[in-house]
User: Fold TonB-dependent receptor from Steroidobacter agaridevorans.
Amino acid sequence: MIKLTSTRLRTLAACGLLLPLGVQAQDTPAEPEQGAGLEEVLVTGTRIMSSGYNAPTPTSVISAEQLTANAQPNIFTTVAQLPSLQGSTGTQTNTFSTSSGAQGLSSFSLRGLGPIRTLTLLDGQRVVGANVTGVPDVSLFPQLLIERVDVVNGGASSSYGSDAVGGVVNFVTNTRFEGVKGNVQGAVTNYDDDETIVAQIAAGSSFFDGRLHAVGSIEYHDEKGVGPGPYGIGLAGGRDWFTQRTLVNRNVLNDGSPQYNVIDYAQPYNYTKYGLITAGPLQGIAFDEAGNPFDFQYGSNGTPDRNAAGSVSGCLPGFCVGGDVSGNVDSGRTLQSELERINGYGRLGFEFADDDEIYVTANLAQVQTHNQPINGMNRPNLTIQCSNAFLPASIQQRCAEAGITEFKYGTSNAILPSTQVYTDRRQYRFVLGAIGGLNVLGDEWNYNGYYEHGINFSDIDVKSIMLNPRFNQAINATLLDGNIVCADPVARASGCVPINIFGGMRPSDAAFNYIMPAKGPYQRTRQNQDVASFNVSGTPVDLWAGPLALAFGVEWRKEEYRVRADAYGNGINAQAGIEGTPYNSVYPADPVLSNNGNNWYAGNYKNGEGDYSVKEAYVEFDLPLFDTQGAGRANLNAASRVTDYSTSGTLHVWKVGGTWDTPLDGLRLRATTSRDARAPNLSELFAAPVTTTLPNFLDPTRNVNVIVIQNQVGNPALTPEIARNTSFGVVLSEPAWLPNFSVSVDYYKIKIDDVISSLSANDIVNYCVRNILPQTCGSFSLDNSNGPGFVNVQSFNFASIETSGFDIEASYRWPQLFGLAGTFTVRGLATHIREYLTDNGLPGTVPVDTAGVNIDSKADWKVLAIQSYDTDKFSLQIQERWISDGVLGNQYIECQPGTCPVSTVNRPTIDNNHVDGAFYLDVGGSYEVLPGTTAYFKVDNVLDEDPARVTIFSNPALYDALGRVYRLGVRFDL
Assistant:
């Protein structure tokens, strides 16, 4: 009979029959419970459980103690600080977005390959996506019961299936927790904002002689967020690092000066806060808040050319430097989303035999966020009639003198409230499973099976946003019977109320309600995930160097989604009503608006739905090659998985790897190579269509312009991306001559073919006509004989990605350093990206290397170092995070005026290609004030390091935009 201790049950449940990883600095998890009876803790790497062998794939492990010491309100933040994670999203990312629905979405990106190529698991099991890309939201996981996080830095598709191209992040819960523990934390930034409150409690107990065990947790997390700032250059809380850095294209290639200029305090000259005439004889006349005209102060000592193009002498195209920047809108972007999170989790397990347990888990969680994408709703290219009833008489006179009847006009619409975006994600996840062991013909086997059903509801609501067609009608005002009204009689009949955009006069409530209805754009998405999985592992044969370990299993999965949107964005003709409310009571028909949708300034959501299913089977073995004193010990690990997708057919992935514990004390070599895959997600396959009219589209076969409808749609014919993932490295683990020291260095290389990418409408047609991409030929028709033609803009499998680099990790522990009680530990992790080549394979293009491009989050070097001192009573931790300097783009040639070569498409010239790196210092500590009760503090970004100045406002996926943060809290474990 196989004896499964409680710790073994916990391990199997959490890890899914897994192989212990190589012993290295990052492989040392928390100690097992005293008396638990299990000699080793198994961590994510393969599906095999086998004693004494080590997986070849590098893995970093973050223990519960390390998660606790970092004192973050969301453990996602701690994990995302690992150097191998590049481009992860969180509460500081996507805050500039109106329509993505990814605000506050905590998702990992290993190797810079994006969240869609990183598989995130909970207890070795899949989690329903919180976005139509299939990416789960880590903030919806139970936080307080996580006992460690395993980060597998390498392809794992043969073990876990699709999405594990960059690697796997597995959250392991403590399924046998006993007692009660909790955490209360408060935090605030150095700028008196982003006030944060976290309250968490967890409990666990056993019943019926330990056969029935229940654990559960409840947590609440509220962050007030940061931002927005006012118009101009100032940011929220008085932060002073924003300089409106902008990359300007001079469009001159061969005059010896750079084609591109990086400028600070950029001033767009096609709009101002309260309005600016931007072209023609009156160019340069602006309006103040009271509506009085004045001569606008251009930066760079610029003077308006007063021509039809609206150019300004002395300035760069589109921008001047300095001058009146009060109308700049970027400072109004939220720096960190406001967030409220509620999470409930429970697990009930019953050991119906000594070797077997059946269990059920439930995870109900909600995350709500709020952000402001930008100040105002910039409209830079309006046409204003000189007869406009709101136009000051002096300007009407200037029009008459100049002989014009209209002029071009730009405004940031400061008279309107800024757009607000609210997201609401609700996750309902249930798992029924069984784990245990059995004896078959004298051999010991372990099994693990589960069925998971997950539902995620994602709601997006946009408030204070205008309907473009109504705005266009409302600003076209005329006098009628002594009253100022909308000039268009059709618009007047449908309720148009005029507004004055010359100055800062607030529109009337009626005008607000006309152009900005109370019920703005919205989207309602439901995603379902069903997974059934069964895995078996054992050691059926004893060979010459040890037992042969074997694992095999099957899995079935179904993913589906449905999204419904409002009538003004989606199109009234396609809208049958939302939430049981007929569209005409919420979104009344209006002849001013397009029945085809796309009426909002932003947030034009569409209806869509789709599903696919997956059937998989895999086998994996771990073969001992030799185990002798003279040669050391080596093993070979291999796996193969066959997957059948309902959308794209059958796919085969595999891996081969091994480790060699050399005769040299503590020295191990390891290597692995694998064929991995990422299947297209629901969004790529079945994206809700977005429709746009292209009135002058060139038909290259007839050389005539035609009218076409551009439909941005999904592509059900997409096939999986195929990756080749190779790594090899060396590990030195606690040699006799230096106990408590470990170091590892690993090289990795990943090549992904058939990468899913999209093309423009012109490219789709041209690449078909030129027989470059024949698969695009079925995506369009330019025949106008029976109405407009169409072009379906969709994704195709045609690009490739190739990346390589190094992972380095080292740690050392000094017990009782200098005779002091406690342990001093140092740990360092680093990742170096040598190359990150993206090749779309299209004519006239060359591969683009984004390694070291800091605006793309792929820093050349990313380092995390931790020093800690721990005793039974108190602890102190110092942490350093370093990001190397980078560039705006590796394609640029940096040069100064008079020295530049001819600028080309693939090698353009630029005056400043540098992007600063960053150094962040974090300090924290704790003290046990009562038995089982500990007070703690943490200061993040002690030096109040500002983010690097980049040309995309900031890059919060790489830099910290908040500044110094103070955290205080109390933990108890009773």
